[in-house]
Specification:
Layout (H helix, E strand, L loop, with lengths): L23 E8 L2 E6 L3 E6 L13 E7 L2 E6 L1 H4 L11 E5 L8 E5 L1 E8 L4 E4 L2 H5 L13 E5 L2 E6 L1 H8 L3 H6 L4
Parallel strand pairs: 2-11, 5-7
Antiparallel strand pairs: 1-2, 1-8, 3-6, 4-5, 6-7, 9-10, 10-11
Length: 182
């Protein structure tokens, strides 16, 4: 990559960040009327949503399954996982997650895919208080560990840990990842 130095920065441009500064790439997306971010290392791919087949007796958070190039993908409604007002998982995109098991195919339904951004250590805006997480004063679906909130494009965005969110919403996910028996 060509790097040009010595030129003045455009007005209003952020100061350059030293190349040695640690950073993390995140995918920013909109689901259930809210903006979220997830570490790019936890994303296998983003794809269009295919027709969904309902699964009898599945938890309410599971919208159903879809076929992605011959592979069955379980679709999860993030709104229901986080106790947000349900929108029925009507999003047109799927964020296919990498949960550490190549045989586990789980996707979050997203209304809009915004961008991939680099997060630097100073991007953290603090932890989202429990009252803001669920609209009340009691701990919500965030559980006992509030998500880190980062500032992206002038807005505070919760940085989701998909394993934690799915483990709280769908009992058994964490056991599958750790190998613990029930």
């Amino acid at each position: 990559m060509l790097e040009v130095t010595g030129l003045p920065a455009p007005l209003g441009a952020a100061p350059p960040v030293p190349a040695a500064a640690p950073r993390r790439k995140v995918l920013v997306f909109r689901a259930a009327g809210e903006w979220f971010a997830v570490a790019l290392a936890r994303v296998r791919e983003v794809c269009p949503r295919a027709p969904v087949t309902r699964v009898p007796r599945a938890p309410a958070q599971v919208l159903g399954v879809m076929n992605l190039r011959g592979r069955v993908v379980t679709l999860v409604d993030l709104a229901r996982c986080l106790d947000l007002p349900a929108d029925g998982g009507a999003g047109a995109h799927v964020v296919l997650l990498d949960l550490g098991d190549p045989d586990l195919a789980v996707g979050l339904v997203a209304d809009r895919i915004d961008q991939v951004v680099d997060l630097y250590p100073d991007a953290a805006a603090g932890a989202l208080p429990p009252a803001a997480a669920d609209g009340g004063g009691t701990p919500g679906a965030w559980g006992k560990h509030d998500p880190q909130v980062v500032e992206i494009g002038g807005r505070a965005v919760p940085l989701l840990d998909p394993v934690q969110v799915l483990a709280q919403a769908l009992p058994g996910v964490e056991r599958e990842q750790t190998g613990d028996s029930p």
